[in-house]
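Record Glycosyl transferase family 2, 333 aa.
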Amino acid sequence: MPEPAVTVAMSVFNGAPFLSEAIESVLGQDFGDFEFLIVDDGSTDASPTIVRDYAAKDSRIRPILRENRGLVASLNEMIESARAPLIARMDSDDICRPDRFNRQVRFLNANPDYGVVGSWSEDIGVHGEPLVRTGADHPVTHEEMVSSIQSGGPLICHPAAMFRREIVRAVGGYHSAFVHCEDLDLWLRLSSVTRLGNIPERLLKYRRYPDQVSSRHAMEQQIGSVVAHAAWRERRAGRPDPTASLLHLPPIDELDTLFGQTGLAWTVREQAALGLLYSPAALRGEGFEFLLSYLKDGGRREGMWRTVLRLVRFGEPRRALRLAWLLLRSSGA
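=>
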């Protein structure tokens, strides 16, 4: 068979509620020269049946149904299995605009110095209803991307990304040490070998709901993001990346030894704790105890009374009282 222009890479794990809509949005693209890799990563719901049914109807779909290995393993497997020079990421709960692939292929063809291009996104809820955006849009040019890296801002929405396969393979693909923030780590590593950008159009509808991965693993994601930025600074300074060969990140207390920097572990704790303050999922979960531990060890109190009020709004009055009591005790009141 002739080589397709694009390989679409989608990994599914128990994604049945939204899977058909996501697949339909890919099959409905006005750019049709693609193959569609769908890895079912050991789902226990109806996802495998849905994937098989669509594969029987459209020969562009190449299903891979197997046991659970995790998202990073699935992504790297699809990169190695891809037959196209360009790979379009897609998640099983999001929706592509019909002209997404067309716009991104045209951009990469016109800008050979760019290895990755994403797009702006539109937030939707469980039932597809539009949600009000609260954060800034993603940076557009590579120069804006570097500034965003330095300030800890957003880079590229993972399911909206299209990238050149060989450039990603050249940097080792996705690293398993950064599970739940594997995309951020990849963009940071790629930023030193190619240009990154976003098309300033909302080519993807990004679904937000309480059970999505970014909500369920908010604390691990925040910690991993801070460590990924620390590794980026090491590479930028011309030093070896101490995370390059890791399969898993070590406990925070071991980061000083790993990086050879006194105080890095505390910096990671502080940045991670402060980064959790606006996450309902984190404050309702183990992130709350992480925050309390940070404060008990002398962490910054500024703005923490607003977090007490936020906990009340999140429906966590007992946790709000625990945080208020800690703040009162530490202030000597």
